[in-house]
Amino acid sequence: MKRMFAYLIVGAMVLGVVTGWGLNHFLTADQASAAASNLNLITDIFLRLIKMIIAPLVFTTLVAGIAHMEDAASVGRIGVKTMTWFIGASIVSLVLGLVMVQLLQPGANMHLPEAVAAAAPAASTDAFSLHGFIAHLVPTSIFDAMARNEILQIVVFSVFVGTAVAALDDKAPAVLHLVEQAASIMLKVTEFVMKLAPFAIFAALASTIATQGLEMLGTYAKFVLGFYGSMGVLWGLLFLAGAVVLGKRVIPLFREIRTPTLLAFSTASSEAAYPRILEALPKVGVRRRIVSFVLPLGYSFNLDGSMLYCTFGTMFIMQAHGVHLSVSQQIFMLLLLMVTSKGIAGIPRASLVVIMATLTYFGLPEAWIAIVLGVDHLLDMGRSATNVVGNSVAAAVVAKWEGELDDMPEADSADGQAQPAAV
After folding, report:
1. Which residue has the higher pLDDT, 344 or 99?
2. Nearest to residue 410, comparing CAs of 245, 238, 249, 274?
3. pLDDT for res 100
4. Taking the alpha carbons of 343, 305, 68, 274 in that order, is the dihedral positive or negative?
5. Cβ contacts of residue 125 below 8 Å, gap of 6+?
6. Per the UniProt record, which residue ranges are transmembrane (predicted)?
7. Range from 7-21, 192-206, 382-396 that averages highest in pLDDT
8. What are the DSSP calls for 398-420, one per residue?
9. How far apart are CA 219 and CA 221, in angstroms?
10. Nearest to 35 by CA among 201, 200, 197, 209
11. Which SS3 state, helix, strand or coil, does residue 181 take?
């Protein structure tokens, strides 16, 4: 089924290119523009569906993950070490994406219609002061925050609720079970929505090529290759960081996570690889109590590939529309993405919502996200695999810092005493 979906995506991309070329080649400019407008309706519906599911999905998965914590002392100690790694990895990923997109300039030569370029508004941070940003983190009403898809506020509320549940002696089993069931339902809804992705991808590509011609594919090629090159650099940095902490253990670690990484790549979902990571990490000595703590948090707080894409994709969109940010504005963007990226669930295309929120924050049309929708699935495959690598390295590093990285089970005697049960 996953392979069939991948074929549908590829087929939608090819059909979108062919249809867009036909509209651009055989219709007048006005007719092609009208056809593109009609196709955009499909894309708009898909984007609205994404926005519909993201708030309840972030809330339920984040509350459920935080609620499954153990005693406060160990959770606090491990939590500080985990968040230290997450924050460091986040900064590296975001800055790397910003640096690489500035060096490569993949959107600089994307020639949009003059009318669109002329209408591009200047980026603004008038409403983005430090005081306003910090105050904006705290919701006055969770229902209002969800209605407006304020991801930052939803994350803050979810952290409070999850921590409160974890602090209760009985962990409020009825409430926790309800949240877990709601999370399962939302993941199933997400699965339904993503079945429409081929239609949206077809419409996005056909609409773009109908108005711009095939010349834009050269820019997309540079965009895709530049992004995968940037991810290659990030993989190298993760390997080096892991080698510094883990030593030679980093080699078997990367060898063990090959299967979940390939699964995430082929399905474009790091969520699909979650069970395989839980199975793989203990094989390199990472105790299950560390894995069960770090991974759920990592799926909301440490999606390295998605964060790299947030800066790379946002700046590509701005470059394509001739919008330039000052150094201070880029710093503001990094700060914004540093927080908003923590609400990304490990599901396909969730980072699109964060990019849309960033564009809106700078006073730019969120509809500009459609420019990357046609190749987003191809990019999502790479960033999902990167998310798996980043979280696997994080779990092993935290285990090493906690002194809970056992000897390799393969190197021990047959009784397997070197891998105690998680308690």
Report:
1. 99
2. 249
3. 95
4. positive
5. 328, 329, 332, 362
6. 45-64, 85-104, 151-168, 189-211, 223-246, 323-340, 352-375
7. 382-396
8. HHHHTT-BPPPGGGS-TT-TTSP
9. 5
10. 209
11. helix
Contacts for 190 with CB less than 8 Å, ≥ 6 apart = 53, 57, 347
Q: Which residue has the higher pLDDT, 291 or 2?
A: 291
Spell out the long-range contacts of 155-162 with Cβ–Cβ below 8 A and sequence spacing 24 or more. 155/58, 155/62, 155/300, 155/339, 155/342, 155/343, 157/59, 158/58, 158/59, 158/62, 158/63, 158/66, 159/62, 159/66, 161/63, 162/62, 162/63, 162/64, 162/65, 162/66, 162/67
Q: Which of 355, 260, 261 is nearest to 306 (CA)?
A: 355
- pLDDT above 70 coverage of the chain, percent: 80
* Residue 82: closest CA among 401, 409, 415, 354: 401
3-state SS, residue 286:
strand
Query: How many angstroms separate the CA atoms of 269 and 286, rounded?
Result: 23
pLDDT at 414: 39
Summarize the chain as % helix, strand, coil (round to 5).
Answer: 80, 0, 20
- Cβ–Cβ < 8 Å for 386, 234: yes
Other Cβ atoms within 10 Å of 272 Cβ, number: 19
CA 23 – CA 3 distance, rounded (Å): 30
Contacts of 318 (CB under 8 A, 6+ apart): 107, 123, 324, 325, 364
Q: Which two tokens stand for residue 328?
A: 């201070």
Count other Cβ atoms within 10 Å, centred on residue 69.
22
